[in-house]
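Q: I have 182 residues here and want to know how they pack in 3D. Can you give me a structure?
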Amino acid sequence: MELIMGPWPWYVGGGIVALVMIALILLGRSFGFSSNFRNICSALGAGNTCNFFDFDWRKQKWNLLFLVGAVIGGFLSAHFLSNNQVPQISAATIAKLNELGFESAGKEYVPSEIFKTMNLKNIILLSVGGLLIGFGTRYAGGCTSGHAISGLSDLQLPSLIAVIGFFIGGLLMVHVFFPFIF
């Protein structure tokens, strides 16, 4: 049980991801969670009113099952296979986050200052962030997992450009915009 509940080395997780990607490439399929939104809308009949959703979603049932499995697996692991591990982060990062008002840094898995209290500011931050992620995903033609894992495995240039953009956006957010928000 300790093997399941403890952190796995990078090479185990990376090896599993590589095996999944090799299998998907051999099967002629591509991975990405954001495409499931389109699949769900199509399955619910959105193709009747919008051409974007008018396609055979049944060919993507495997991806929908992967999504359901990821949600169920995440729930089970968080509630039954977790010993509430706190990620190890550097003392300098903890000090910087404490300066920004995050006293939970290094003590909890997620910042309780954002996720435990649902005040107006947090609701607005989460809503705007969700909308920006949704827009960015559609604009970039896929999500970070789709581009970084599947697209790069397929050697797609647009995915390389998207991943570089994701990293630049993440660096700008953390080092430029984050201090202004908090």
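Q: Anything worth noting?
A: The mean pLDDT is 85. The first helix runs from residue 2 to 5.
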